[in-house]
């Protein structure tokens, strides 16, 4: 799908991979709407790229419906949706203070998994109303963000791995369902990326994480996530797949 002049929604667009993807899409001529729970951050990024930004909690049905409607009013229905919104708190099933509070587990599932489905269902409904484009009769592309933790979750990542595993597992059935309408659905599973979450860790921890990556021997860059998203949008044969972006890392237990 050609990106120029297309309406795009990027969730989690206030920082990290979402912000960088939004910048790259804007540079390609897309009409970008950014969503993020941090409204100040998302509006700042939006102003940098001449886009629009809205505060949005992807785990809340009304919040997503409202934000997508606001974006639609300005840019028209989105043909491209990229969800980078997520949280990654660590917590053992049984820690020093006893069992993990169930609400901690539920929150991670709601943001990372339910939030991904929530945005996908709303943008997909809009995409089905659009005229098909190009030789492939394509109407839209939905890209979610999984993680290598879906495959090799570490100790303390039970909630995060479960959520990202859900993102992986729902990719193919949603792609199959929407295929007859010309809407593609994929996910990217990043490894250890140089995002604000990682940047907040001590330098020694960051160095240790980078040393685990076979090649390139460094943290992944948000721009590399954005480049892969751009290629997915451009390549109509990519569908129903989860693509690892990890430098060949296979996470150890801890």
Q: What order do the helices and strands come in, and which of them pair?
A:
Layout: E1 7-11, H1 16-27, E2 31-36, H2 39-48, E3 52-55, H3 61-75, E4 80-83, E5 94-95, E6 98-99, H4 102-127, E7 140-145, H5 158-179, E8 183-190, H6 196-199, H7 203-211, H8 222-234, E9 242-245
Parallel strand pairs: 1-2, 1-4, 2-3, 4-7, 7-8, 8-9
Antiparallel strand pairs: 5-6
Description:
With 254 residues, this protein is α/β, with parallel strands linked by helices. It has a single domain, classed as Rossmann fold. 44% of the residues lie in helices and 16% in strands. The chain contains eight helices and nine strands. It has helices spanning 16-27, 39-48, 61-75, 102-127, 158-179, 196-199, 203-211, 222-234, and strands at residues 7-11, 31-36, 52-55, 80-83, 94-95, 98-99, 140-145, 183-190, 242-245. The strands form two sheets. The protein has a seven-stranded parallel beta sheet, with helices on both faces. Strand 2, helix 2 (39-48) and strand 3 form a beta-alpha-beta unit. Helix 3 runs parallel beside helix 4 and helix 4 (102-127) runs parallel beside helix 5.
């Amino acid at each position: 799908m050609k990106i120029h002049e297309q309406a795009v929604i990027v969730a989690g667009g206030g920082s990290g991979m979402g912000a960088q993807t939004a910048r790259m899409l804007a540079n390609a001529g897309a009409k970008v709407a950014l969503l993020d729970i941090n409204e100040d951050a998302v509006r700042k990024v939006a102003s940098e790229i001449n886009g629009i930004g809205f505060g949005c909690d992807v785990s809340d049905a009304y919040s997503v419906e409202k934000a997508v409607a606001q974006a639609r009013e300005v840019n028209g229905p989105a043909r491209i949706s990229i969800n980078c919104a997520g949280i990654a708190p660590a917590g053992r099933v049984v820690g020093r203070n006893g069992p993990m509070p169930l609400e901690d587990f539920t929150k991670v599932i709601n943001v990372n998994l339910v939030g991904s489905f929530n945005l996908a269902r709303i943008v997909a409904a809009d995409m089905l109303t659009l005229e098909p484009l190009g030789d492939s009769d394509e109407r839209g592309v939905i890209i979610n963000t999984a993680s290598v933790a879906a495959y090799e979750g570490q100790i303390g990542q039970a909630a995060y791995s479960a959520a990202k595993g859900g993102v992986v597992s729902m990719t193919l059935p949603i792609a199959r369902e929407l295929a007859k309408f010309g809407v593609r659905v994929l996910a990217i599973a990043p490894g250890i990326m140089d995002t604000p979450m990682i940047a907040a860790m001590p330098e020694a921890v960051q160095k240790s994480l980078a040393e685990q990556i076979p090649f390139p021997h460094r943290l992944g860059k948000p721009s590399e996530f954005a480049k892969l998203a751009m290629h997915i949008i451009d390549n109509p044969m990519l569908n129903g797949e989860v693509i690892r972006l990890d430098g060949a890392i296979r996470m150890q237990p801890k």
